[in-house]
Design brief:
By secondary structure, the chain is α/β, with parallel strands linked by helices. It contains six helices and seven strands, in the order ααβαβαββαβαββ. It starts with 7 loop residues before the first helix and ends with a strand.
Length: about 210
């Protein structure tokens, strides 16, 4: 098993090109993000929102959206009380996605940044589907990249982090997607990041959601 991923361009350029083609073809549409339907994409946002929806307006928060695409998560979160005076940082490896996000969201609370990792510290960090598409990377290389990416994102997170991934229990497989073992991911998080880890089963068996809490 590879312990470290290959250089970022080798690993991520095919993924970035795929999403760039997607946004050029579909614009701000769930198909540009390789989601099969908008409802399934929104369900993931709703699960993540459970961590922040009850935070009052007088406690504004900062949020990292790792793999933001055209800013669909910001659409879902922008009216939550804690973000009315909060900050949102969206990151994506496709420059064209970031251009689309900035065009759609001329909001002073939102910053959109071309990057494969978070550059800002935030109270909460979320990863919705970002680690699903590996294109032609090996499972070992992609797993090593996910682990390192997760370590870095956790170092930028003050309170809690939520992410979802495709599960190895998923009966529908595509060659260019990565399917993770939920038990292994939870064990990695507890061993290297925090003992306070819980899973959410609202997407099983195709996917799983993990919450990391400080």
């Amino acid at each position: 098993m590879s312990s470290t991923p290959p250089d970022m361009p080798t690993l991520l350029d095919p993924v970035a090109r795929t999403f760039t083609l997607g946004v050029k073809a579909f614009g701000a549409h769930h198909k540009a993000l390789a989601w099969h339907d908008a409802e399934r994409m929104q369900r993931r946002f709703d699960i993540f929102a459970g961590l922040i929806m009850d935070i009052p307006e007088d406690r504004p928060i900062e949020v990292n959206d790792h793999g933001c695409g055209y800013g669909a998560m910001f659409d879902s979160f922008k009216n939550l009380k804690a973000l009315k005076r909060g900050r949102y940082y969206g990151y994506d490896i496709s420059p064209e996605m970031i251009v689309e996000a900035k065009k759609r969201h001329p909001d002073a609370r939102a910053d959109f940044i071309v990057s494969h990792e978070a550059t800002e510290e935030a109270d909460y960090s979320f990863v919705s589907g970002t680690w699903n598409m590996k294109m032609w990377a090996s499972d070992a290389d992609w797993r090593a990249f996910v682990y390192e990416n997760l370590r870095h994102l956790w170092s930028k997170t003050r309170i809690a982090l939520g992410f979802n991934m495709l599960s190895i229990a998923n009966p529908y497989r595509e060659e260019t997607l990565y399917y993770a073992d939920p038990a292994h991911m939870v064990e990695f998080c507890r061993r290297e990041l925090t003992p306070n880890v819980r899973t959410v089963d609202r997407l099983e068996p195709r996917e799983f959601v993990v919450f990391l809490l400080r």
